[in-house]
Amino acid sequence: MNKGKFITFEGIDGAGKSTHIAYVAGLLRARGMDVVVTREPGGTALGEKLRDLLLHEPMHLETEALLMFAARREHLAQVIEPALACGRWVISDRFTDASFAYQGGGRKLSLEKLAVLENWVHPHLQPDLTLLFDVPLEVARARLDAARAPDKFEQEKADFFAATREVYLARAKQFPQRFRLVDSTQSIEKIQKELEELLSSI
Ligand SMILES: Nc1ncnc2c1ncn2[C@@H]1O[C@H](COP(=O)(O)OP(=O)(O)OP(=O)(O)O)[C@@H](O)[C@H]1O
Ligand SMILES: Cc1cn([C@H]2C[C@H](O)[C@@H](COP(=O)(O)O)O2)c(=O)[nH]c1=O
C-alpha cells in the first residue's frame, strides 16, 4: 500500500490558510485521493481541549510550547500516522513549523529547545509539502479585525507577528524542498489558480 502524503498550511494569523484548505481538499478528492483535513493545536478530543487552554489561558511560554507538542503527539498517534499508513492524504492547518514561528519567533523560546521537542515527538516524519501563506502584518490584521474577535495569539502586538513571519520565511529558505510560498495578498481566485498548478505536480 502506498503511503499517503502530508500537506501542511502555515502563515501568521489572518494570512488566509483556512480559506484555502477546503479548496485544496476538494482538488485532491477530485483526483481520487482519500483526504483527511485536520488542524493544530487540536485534531483529537484531547487536542481540542488543549487548544481551548492554549488559545485562551495565560501561561508560561515553556508550558505553551510543551502543550503544543503534547497535543501534537496525540494528533500524530491518533490521526496523522494511521491515516498516512493506510494511504490517505492528510492536510493539517498548522504543524511544527508553527511552533518554531510562534513559540520560537514570537515568544523567543530557544529554537534548540524546540528542535529537541520536535526530535522527540516526530523524529522521522516531516510534511511532504508546506504551503506558507505570506502577507504583510497590516493586511493580516485588517482581515482578522473584519472577521472575528481575537484569541490570545491574535491579541499580540505587531513585533510578535513580525518575528513570527520572519521565522516562517527563514524556514522556507532552510527547507526549500518542501516549502512553497504563496503570496496571500492576491485575490482568493488568483491564489486558487496558483494552488491548482502547484498541486498538479505532486
Ligand atoms: N486572499 C484574500 N483576500 C481577501 N480576503 C481574504 C483572503 N484570504 C482570506 N481572506 C479573509 O481573511 C480572513 C482571515 O482568513 P483565514 O481565516 O483563512 O486566515 P487564517 O490564516 O486561517 O487565520 P488564522 O490562522 O487566524 O485562523 C477571512 O475573513 C477571509 O475571508
Ligand atoms: C500549531 C501551533 C499553533 N500556534 C498558534 C497559532 C495560532 O495563533 C493559534 C491557532 O489558531 P488558528 O486560528 O487555528 O490558526 O495557535 C502556536 O502558537 N504554536 C503552534 O505550534
TrEMBL record:
It holds the Pfam family Thymidylate_kin. CDD domains: TMPK. Keywords: ATP-binding, Kinase, Nucleotide biosynthesis, Nucleotide-binding, Transferase. This is Thymidylate kinase. The keyword Lipid biosynthesis does not apply. InterPro entries: P-loop_NTPase, Thymidylate_kin-like_dom, Thymidylate_kinase. It comes from Noviherbaspirillum sedimenti. Phosphorylation of dTMP to form dTDP in both de novo and salvage pathways of dTTP synthesis. It catalyses: dTMP + ATP = dTDP + ADP. GO terms for molecular function: ATP binding; dTMP kinase activity. Belongs to the thymidylate kinase family. ATP binds at G11, I12, D13, G14, A15, G16, K17, S18. One of its GO terms (biological process) is dTDP biosynthetic process. GO terms for cellular component: cytosol. Its EC number is 2.7.4.9. Residues 9-194 form the Thymidylate kinase-like domain.
